[in-house]
Amino acid sequence: MDDSQLDLGTLEDIDPSLAGGYKIQFNKEINIETRIQNANNDTQEIGTLEQIKVKILVQGDLQAFENLKIELTSETDLFFNYITIVDRENYQNIKEAQKLTIEYPQFLQMLIKLLNSSHKEPNHFFCVFFMQQDGSAKLDFIENLEYKFMEMLTLEFRSATEEVIRQNVSFRYNLMKAKLQYVQNRLNDITSLIKLKNPSLLAQINKLQINSSLIQSNQNQNTSKYLGQSKKNNNSSKYI
Question: Where is the composition biased (Polar residues) (predicted)?
Fold first, then answer.
């Protein structure tokens, strides 16, 4: 194991999300429709479909956890960071208000099932994330029954504090930097091996790489006039 692999393992262990004894139970990018909502007149922007990383963590033993934390982050906007913590007490309020039939220990599996359904069957299950200007937000899990949309679950979120966001951005930056270094080291090792065993093959690979870079550059120039278009025009909202 080289130093870069050791760095990766060390960095993953100091994920700020794990502070307080939390353990990751779900970590996946899910297509979620995001909307900015005006609290005064209830108006909202047209929904934008984005890949949001959903991380679910539990504090304590998995069979009898004390708290359940959900974090929403985005790779395209490092400062997008929303968190909710559900303990036994506020879960009881959620259960009564939304007429859920499961107890707190089963809530984790319910969330994972809903998120996996949204990932695998986006035309039948999907999520909508409503954001307020004051930092509050809610996540709706929706089922498309063809003749109507049914809200299966709603969870309240808050934007993370500046300190939490700073720690998270720093962690993700350092983790990506370590991964890049690992890939670069592996590439150097492979290049050295090919150069030793088959120098002519390495020359062909370098030539192909140069040609590919030229083609990509030309494509970028041809499409640059479209870069100003908003992606919101390309995503129609499923949930009205």
Answer: 225-240
Q: Which two tokens stand for residue 62?
A: 């998995």
Q: List, in order, residues 6 or more apart from 95 with CB less than 8 Å away.
A: 102
Label the pairing between strands 125-132 and 136-144.
antiparallel
Instruction: Report the pLDDT value the prediction gives residue 147, as an integer from 0 to 100.
Output: 87
- The average pLDDT across 142-154 equals 92
In the three-class reduction of DSSP (H, G, I as helix; E, B as strand; rest coil), residue 72 is classed as strand
pLDDT tops 50 at residue 215: yes
Which residues, 6 or more positions from 17, have their beta carbon under 8 angstroms from its beta carbon?
24, 55, 57, 69, 71, 168
Tens of pLDDT, residue by residue over 89-102, are 999 999 999 999 99
Write down the pTM of the prediction: 0.76
Residue 19 CB coordination number (10 Å): 10
Instruction: Look up tokens 């590919």; give the residue.
Output: 212
Helix pair 199-223, 162-197: axis angle to 10 deg: 140
